[in-house]
């Protein structure tokens, strides 16, 4: 039995398969950060910290002539989003119903994906995480007053990375509103804006990133942005009563910016 306690839940194998499939379907499009940064793991629930490869001097415990230092690490943080499912809905699913109400799971998946994206792109100070946009030494430039201004802004961001020796290909994380404008906009002559931006990025991805404010252009060459997963996103069991099963989505991770100059933020 592991810490998720799934064996204690009044949920059949068919029910767990339904819940896992639904969570996976909802999470994959929303986990924007994982599509643009280096992902290591999962290393397991007991994995507690990321080695930073650095030390910090501390006072020696006793004898003169002895120096001491302590290894520096970045503790992993845990995110949890709770939700519930009616037992009657799970029973109907076991009977073959195809319209099981999993709205609360969908909401929890969206919330935890947004929390992860915000931590990676904008930081989480209390958890010791510096976000990509806030760590960048490049001053945020405006995307523009309309989507037709985006190519010029993205091109300037790409050029600012090349100017400091950061090679591509490059990726673009767009906040939901900005991404919608890109999808809906065709430039003069009918050339899709999405295709134009992809060409500027050298073929890199343009990612819908809920939780991101504005946009971030970043290099995908590798080694610059490091996401380390302990427990990957999974559903766990909390408790149940006669009518409802209470569950949660949970993960643990750390995130480091190794090369701050490998990203350029763009403000909305």
Task: Please render the helix and strand layout as text.
Layout: H1 13-30, E1 38-40, E2 49-58, E3 68-75, E4 77-86, H2 87-95, H3 103-122, H4 132-135, E5 141-142, H5 150-163, E6 170-174, H6 176-184, H7 193-200, E7 206-208, E8 215-219, E9 225-229, E10 234-240, E11 244-257, E12 263-267
Parallel strand pairs: 1-9, 5-12, 6-7
Antiparallel strand pairs: 2-3, 4-11, 6-8, 8-12, 9-11, 10-11
Q: How would the global form be characterised?
A: flat
Helix content: 25-40%
Largest sheet: 5 strands, mixed
Rounded radius of gyration (Å): 22 Å
Order of helices and strands: HEEEEHHHEHEHHEEEEEE
| Regions with little confidence, pLDDT below 50 for 5+ residues | none
Mean pLDDT: 93
Number of strands: 12
Structural class: alpha/beta
Tell me the number of helical segments per DSSP (H or I, 4 or more residues long).
Answer: 7
Distance between the termini: 47 Å
* Percentage beta strand: 25-35%
Question: What do these coordinates show?
Answer:
- The chain has 268 residues and is α/β, with parallel strands linked by helices.
- 31% of the residues lie in helices and 29% in strands.
- The strands form three sheets. Strands 1, 4, 9, 10 and 11 form a five-stranded mixed beta sheet that branches. It has a five-stranded mixed beta sheet with strand order 5-12-8-6-7.
- The longest helix is centred in the middle third of the chain and has 20 residues, at 103-122.
- The mean pLDDT is 93.
